[in-house]
Amino acid sequence: MKVKDIMDTTPNPARIADTFEHLIRMLDEVKYHVVFVVDAEDKLVGIVTEADIVKALIPKYLSFDAFLISAMNGNYLENKCIESRNLAITEIMTKTILSVHEDDTVIKAAALMVVNKIHTLPVVNDGKVVGIVHLINLIKHIMNVLAKDRT
Amino acid sequence: MFFWIATGIFIVSFGLIISERLDKTKVALIGAGLVMALNIVTQNEAFYDRKYAIDYNVIFLLFGMMVIVNILSKTGVFQFLAIKSAKLVKGRPVWILVLFTGITAVFSSFLNNVTTVLILVPVSLLIADELQIDPFPFLLSEIMASSLGGTATLIGGPPNILIASKVQLTFMDFIYHLTPAVLFVFSFFLLTIKLLFGKKLQVKEEVRQKILAINEYEMIKSYSLLIKSLSVLGLVIPGFIFSNRIHLEPATIAILGAAILLIISKENLQNVLRELEWATLFYFIGLFIVVAGVVKVGLISTLSDYMVSFTKPDAENMFATSIVILWFSAIASTVMENTILIASIIPLVTDMAQTILPSGLDLKSIIQHSTLMPVWWSLALGTCLGGNATPIGASANIVTLGLAERAGYPIPFKKYLIYGIPLTIEMIILSTVYVWLRYYVLKFYL
Question: Is B130 near chain A, with CB under 8 Å?
């Protein structure tokens, strides 16, 4: 089975120049809650998930010393949101290194996701996004395989 | 023939280690392997000989303290103390700076320098974040305070542990001679820091409240583990202090302490062992063998002859030697990490002492001769404090700057130098004054 057989072709593009607030709204509205970031030539440069948004609000020193989590001020997150209003997308996004081509096999896509602990892969053709493979697509595919086997 | 091979191995190892081209543990191990394979120092000598063997006292003291500190840090007591002190001064940033600098020095006197900054830097970043101030003053002061604290006691860091082991000094020797030096230098350092940064660190009352709102008791992850860890520390530190009277070497005390704590804490052994700095331990093992090689072939005694003709020490007065060693090791330490420096200079000074001092005495009386002692203390001060001058002078500096960068507060090389060089010069000048006043004016040897 090829990726193009299971992928979803509805695009979720965001541009580099978009703001933090715009991005959050997009994330909430789009399918899979994943947004792909493209540059002026529509080439894929990054991906933004809900995890990336929250990560941008949590200070790095907590990953140096998790014990300090209990010391965080009660209003920290709320204050940080307001401060981050104008954060650039490039500072939040994960720069995309992993992607698949529509002619790649499903096993390749699935294995990449498991080994790299991610839930979404962009499907790319010549640098441009043509689709998305999410764990949900894989689950649907698995359901179909079992259904066909029953008959 | 052996002379040139051994010297060659030593110089290449030295160069690779200070240039950081290759991980220093790898360098030390291959150097050691070659020294033994080529029979410059036989394996038998490297493992068992009185003069040339690996100093297991150092290795096991380091290991034991690593275990105890690892378990102790799982309690959150260090974070508790830091936040408690910030609250004690009502969140006033200047006083937090002063207290954190002091705490860093105190912790560093029994933890190693890198561990100390790994504890203080994240909490300093948190405080700076809450108070909306630049963390630079905290980071700079903590880097320097960690090296100052590490100079104060025998267990403060590898350089002192090495000196203690080779010169057969006790914990109390350091308390009598180096702790006062450190207190002297540190007081002026703290004053300087307060003068430098006091004005910039002003914060409104309502912002300071954020610090007072933190519940420091939530930092303690396990009271039972804390009690157990502190109890073991309460046995080990007095053990070091009275090691002479109870006739036990520091390594023995450390091993016992580590073993007891591992058992009573019921910590998973693998989890603890996994987090220890094995690379550091094996670096020392390899380093001892490489240095033994150049000691055995006579490179060290050749160098010590040069030093003797240069500083002209005599059996009564080694003032010039002390000061030269102080400044030389400080300057060398600004660009290289200090363990290989110390490991090389110790046999050099030992050899020099044997040449100059009355030959009838046994080794211990020679290396602990009162005329020579100021040289050892100068070596410790210079090596430990010199590293503060540059961002690469010490591991604690590199680690702190790395964390600062990852957290979004990069410290440019130049900015560090602008503060680092003058502050370090101040510290070395103060050390010079201390050595001169104490050993050559007041002649207070104890």
Answer: yes
Domain that holds residue B255: 57-274
How many domains, chain B? Answer: 1
Mutate to test the interface with B, among A58, A61, A69, A77 (most CBs of B within 10 A): A61
Q: Look at residue B289 and tell me if it is in a domain.
A: no
Considering only the beta carbons, identify the residue of B123, B130, B406 that sits closest to A60. B406
Interface of chain A toward chain B, CB-CB under 8 angstroms: 59-62, 64-65, 67-68, 70-74
Average pLDDT over every residue of B210-228: 92
Taking an 8 Å cut-off on Cβ atoms, the answer to whether B218 and A73 are in contact is no
Planar angle of CA B181, B184, B186, nearest 5 degrees: 105
Q: B8 falls in which pLDDT band (50, 70, 90)?
A: very high
3 state DSSP class of B145: helix
Tell me the ipTM for this assembly.
Answer: 0.80
Domain holding A46, by residue range, is 3-150
Report the gap between the CA of B230 and the closest CA in chain A (Å). 19
Residue B45 in tokens: 């000598």
> Is A71 in contact with B218 (Cβ distance < 8 A)?
yes
Is B210 within a domain?
yes
Cβ separation B122–A70 shorter than 8 A: no
Q: Residue A72: pLDDT band by 50, 70, 90 thresholds?
A: very high
Asked if B122 lies within 8 A of A71 by C-beta distance, the reply is: no
Q: How far is CA A25 from CA A76, A119, B186, B234, B367, in A?
A: 21, 20, 54, 57, 74
* DSSP string covering A116-134: TT-SEEEEEETTEEEEEEE
CB contact under 8 A, B79 and A61: no
Q: What are phi and psi of B220, to 5 degrees?
A: -75, 115
Average pLDDT over residues B32-46: 94
- B215: contact with A, CB 8 A cutoff: yes
Residue A48 sits in a domain whose CATH number is 3.10.580.10
**How many domains does the structure of chain A reveal?**
1
Contacts of B408 (CB under 8 A, 6+ apart): A60
| Residue B253 forms part of a structural domain | yes
Dihedral of CA atoms B397, B400, B406, B409 in degrees, nearest 10, equals -90
Domain-embedded: residue B37: no
